[in-house]
Amino acid sequence: MSNPLPQTAPKAAPATYALGSIVVALAGIALKLLAWKLTGSVALFSDALESLVNLAAAAGAYIALRQAARPADDGHPFGHHKAEYFSAVAEGILIIGAALVILNEAWQALFGPRVLDDLGIGLFINALAGLLNAAWATHLLRQGRHFRSPALIADAKHLFADVATSVGVIGGVLAAGLTGYLILDPLLAALVAVNVLWSGWHLVRGSVGGLMDEAAPAEIRAEIQELIQKHGAGSLQAHDLRTRVAGQRTFLEFHLVVPRTMTVAEAHKICDAIEDGLRLRLGDIHIAIHVEPSEKAKAEAEVIIASE
Fold this sequence. Notes:
single chain; alpha+beta; Alpha-lytic protease prodomain-like; Alpha-Beta Plaits; 2 domains; four-stranded mixed β-sheet; 4 strands; CDF_Transporter; membrane; transport
């Protein structure tokens, strides 16, 4: 079949963004620990713990992306793309762990409310860390979708969960300071922890699906069928379409039915046209096409191109 079309970005680029996440996580940790030291707030301390998890998760994503970018070899003929899912699963577990730590801290503070000091400067510093995370998470999510990278998307969602934690924490600490009801500090921290826990569960669930070779999303499968029909002129139908996604790569295989009188060279040309069209639209996709004569046509074919 034809050679893959050139890609628009180098394979190493996603790892570069993961490295940027490590830098952002270090900055966030420094700011939030300073805010906690100034105020003594258990909620701000819990927020700092969440940022420590950000650092571990970003480091895991960087290692996984470097591994996933390695070319195929004799031992891994389909590449190392699934390495990203291990990072995403680990990150989801870390999010869940951080949420449990926050809940534990909130529970202890619930029965021993702590006096809050220097709220103005402390909350300002914590807000700066939240804004930094929000800006980087937005950029990271855009790049993750561009590269179709589960590790980058998981890292971005983790950062958004951290931003949600910061917003809840700042609101709780501010309310506690203004009203004098110090119990609000641990209560709102606990509510945010529940939200973080839910986010971690969804990350683990989605990543496990990738490890289990779940089919590509419905919109991608519909686009594949549309492209086969568009570029498969001269063939009759395509059936038994099967897809799976591994990191940034989509795997596709299907049976292409052609007229029984068609030569091998003519069928090969149609396959080339379909492959080029799919790669142009979908990027990194591995395609396997099994050509069959017209008597192998099926009534339940996913794509009908022409009738003999």
